[in-house]
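Structure, all two chains, one model.
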Amino acid sequence: MNLLLLEEADFIAADRVVLRDRRLVHMQDVHRVAVGDNLRVGRIGGLMGNAQLLRLDAREAELQVSFELPPPAKLPLTLLLALPRPKMLRRVLQTVAAMGVPKVVLLNSYRVEKSFWQTPFLEPAALREQLILGLEQARDTVLPEIIIEKRFKPFVEDRLPAMTQGTLGLIGHPGDYPPCPRALDEPVTLAIGPEGGWIPYEVDLLAKAGLQPVQLGARILRVETAVTALLARLF
Amino acid sequence: MNLLLLEEADFIAADRVVLRDRRLVHMQDVHRVAVGDNLRVGRIGGLMGNAQLLRLDAREAELQVSFELPPPAKLPLTLLLALPRPKMLRRVLQTVAAMGVPKVVLLNSYRVEKSFWQTPFLEPAALREQLILGLEQARDTVLPEIIIEKRFKPFVEDRLPAMTQGTLGLIGHPGDYPPCPRALDEPVTLAIGPEGGWIPYEVDLLAKAGLQPVQLGARILRVETAVTALLARLF
């Protein structure tokens, strides 16, 4: 946790917060804070700034806070991601939040196991928890938007074309395709498939919606690694 | 597992192998293979090729194998990595093997907790297990070399200068430094710090050994994410 993220409910005054949950435990056990210490804080969806620890006991911490810095810029990106298996989903959500992706569509694919859609990690509160961990890691305050699309074809045919308009549409896909471009400034819509990849029918439909396959070389990467590698290369 | 990696002990003839361990379970449970199916195989440290499943029962699988393809090229890179916490270490080892890093130095740092050095995951067999998982994922056969350096100063002062000679020496380090370069062809020595980063004394010693700090932006990434992002950007 490189940034202590504050919720509206934490505030007892405009410049005072009281914390009682895992953030209190983390401050004590990992940061080993003492009264008078300064910490970096951020207001969810708002500015970042500093806090001074006023009071600390086993039950709660009180901090005086001030906010002056904007959070870092997001990437100009919409990420379409075939729903990963639950364990991977949690890590990928942290990663995309940490790397500054503003919008993620979790999408079905032929190779997404049906059981993946049953995971409790897709509940709004569980999604939010992982995103917050990513924001705390990277020092950002703005939650990415997560859109869940359980049906591939209607999404790709009916809603994706409008989403990709005015963006460079790319599919990260192993094979005999052009290399993934580097250091772009323009907005991008990027689709990353499941373990095993999109099937040819899916690549065709994505292409009709304006996305072209690009590759990162012969090595097949896990979804989480592919997400990070593609983003680091694109921007 | 995108490549079935074969050990010398698996061979019962020049073109025949018998498998009994987790690879048998994986072939049955994940790939759901049947007699006659073809699989991609690789010989550890050698060529890649194809296998045909000749015989399969609950206890073992027999395959006919042939080898004709060289494994993909490695990156021209030596990676110095402050020893991550055990859980992260396992994933990072898989990631570096998958991405084609040929040589990794696991290094001490002021911010590496002493207990991390006690983990059983540093045993040679445990390191090898994680590296194999990475090679199987990416389709490579050549194990990276892992060097363990429990003492920072003697390594950086006495052995690192010879290691960095003829390479571009870089430290991935958040702060007011030049941006990490892109799309290099030349050999690189890259140092990545622990959670919390190298301390200034360590950055100074690394700089004296020929490594200069570069940054990836304001966002602070987890070690595993930073490794992937830096490699994807450098090469």
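The two ends of chain B are 25 Å apart (CA to CA).
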